[in-house]
Amino acid sequence: MRISSSQVRLLVISSLVLIAVVVVVRLTIGEKPQVGPAIQNDKATIPLRSYMSPGDRGTTASIDPCTLIEKGEIEAEIGRPVGEPQSGYADNPLGERYCRFPDPEAQDIDLFNYSIVFNASIDPPLLRDGYSVLRMFEGRKVSPDLIQVVENLGDDAFWGGSGKELWNGLHILVHDVYLQVKVNSGNELMDYRIAQNVAVAALERLFTD
After folding, report:
1. pTM
2. What is the mean pLDDT of residues 150-172?
3. For residue 132, which of 10, 79, 85, 171 sits 20 to 30 Å off, Cα-Cα?
């Protein structure tokens, strides 16, 4: 069977279109912090699990999350200036507190944002109804397709990717504390590494001071 020149051109064009689609998809997906089925935490400098069981310590008091990390540390991690830290309450019934470091040139854009919830700060009626940091942590896992388990960090942890959704960021459960860290560096792998470094530093200070 003889192939005409028009058929050859059609095959070439189809191949080029397919290659272009593959390239676009790869660029869209970007670099992911995927290391097998679970992300290995290689930055933690202390064994967080070793002293976080309820039998080893009492109730953790609620504090302002901005006291756990300094502006200079965030700038060193991100590699650029950030705005002054701003703290507040994200959800009063849960006592969820946040600390945000905005873009100095666009105050409505967060370059770094993390929130923290303590069982001690949740309203007693909610606690009696079974609400806790564990329930909140589990509720934000949403779907196995959207998260990755992070091993050897706190009692439980997962990475939900970069973005503004509830499941995005690095989520860590330690004893009676739930920490969520979101970074906006423009690179998801870098976002994960920065979130991990800052989270470990904050938890070290929270549980060793």
Report:
1. 0.75
2. 90
3. 85
